[in-house]
User: Which sequence fits this backbone?
């Protein structure tokens, strides 16, 4: 007997313009900034700037050694101080050394890259990133938090723009990006799973930025067939192992498994697993951690 969870983390809808006319799906009001969702931040390091230029144009974050560079063009302007302060407060202050690395098969790491911290209103995000030439580095979350505080102080409070903190970690391969985000998330009352279980799901998801065609199973043009679900496999394994011992206990565990579902209300659309990962992070940070379930809308082209 297979036990499926009774709740939904996120119904991530890939929508085109036809759906806006549906009365059953009221349009969500965007945040104060209408930010393009597809701005390329895949190579966040400002490669045109050498170290000397960075030291002139940037500042050094106190106590972290990170070099701060503010840029309203690349990392967006008009960021909310309150939102970014809330995002900074989501970062742990652990002083233990952690292994930050790309989430590759077989890799033994403590913190997968990408990792994102998001404000409760979804309008500010902080991403931990690696240099394009690197796949691993060691650092403490305390260093990360100090660098994020530097970004908040120098860029958001000082200039109301986003920015990047560089040269974090033992080998100086880690960076932080603070920028704005348009979540288009709607939270609602429901049976929410534990935040930690949804974190497990997020940390094991594919995050490729390669654009794929998503669509109904009946459409031969669909490369990724939807509806498509993502499960928190760690909790699901615990449920399966407990099932033979106690059916009652297994049912309780099944209620805690984190599930995200991609749906479409139109035909085919294009997106990437990275964009889907972003949406699930937003629902987890804006809804699940407050005991609600939620939906992220307007994904895809």
Assistant:
């Amino acid at each position: 007997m297979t036990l499926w969870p009774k709740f939904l983390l996120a119904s991530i809808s890939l929508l085109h313009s036809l759906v806006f006319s549906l009365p059953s799906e009221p349009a969500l009001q965007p945040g104060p900034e209408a930010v393009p969702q597809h701005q390329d931040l895949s190579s966040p390091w400002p490669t045109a700037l050498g170290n000397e230029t960075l030291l002139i144009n940037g500042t050094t974050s106190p106590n972290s050694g990170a070099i701060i560079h503010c840029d309203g063009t690349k990392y967006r302007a008009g960021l909310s101080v309150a939102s970014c302060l809330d995002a900074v407060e989501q970062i742990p202050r652990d002083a233990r050394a952690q292994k930050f690395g790309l989430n590759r098969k077989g890799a033994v790491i403590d913190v997968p890259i990408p990792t994102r911290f998001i404000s409760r209103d979804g309008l500010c995000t902080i991403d931990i990133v690696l240099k394009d030439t690197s796949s691993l580095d060691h650092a403490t979350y305390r260093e990360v938090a100090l660098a994020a505080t530097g970004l908040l102080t120098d860029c958001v409070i000082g200039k109301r723009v986003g920015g990047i903190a560089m040269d974090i970690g033992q080998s100086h391969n880690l960076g932080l990006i603070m920028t704005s985000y348009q979540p288009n998330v709607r939270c609602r009352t429901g049976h929410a799973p534990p935040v930690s279980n949804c974190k497990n799901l997020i940390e094991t998801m594919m995050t490729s930025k390669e654009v794929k065609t998503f669509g109904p199973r009946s459409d031969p043009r669909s490369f990724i067939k939807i509806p498509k679900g993502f499960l928190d496999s760690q909790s699901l394994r615990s449920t399966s192992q407990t099932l033979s011992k106690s059916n009652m206990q297994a049912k309780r565990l099944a209620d805690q498994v984190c599930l995200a579902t991609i749906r479409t209300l139109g035909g085919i659309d294009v997106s990437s697993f990275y964009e889907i990962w972003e949406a699930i992070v937003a629902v987890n940070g804006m809804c699940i951690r407050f005991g609600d379930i939620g939906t992220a809308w307007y994904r895809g082209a």
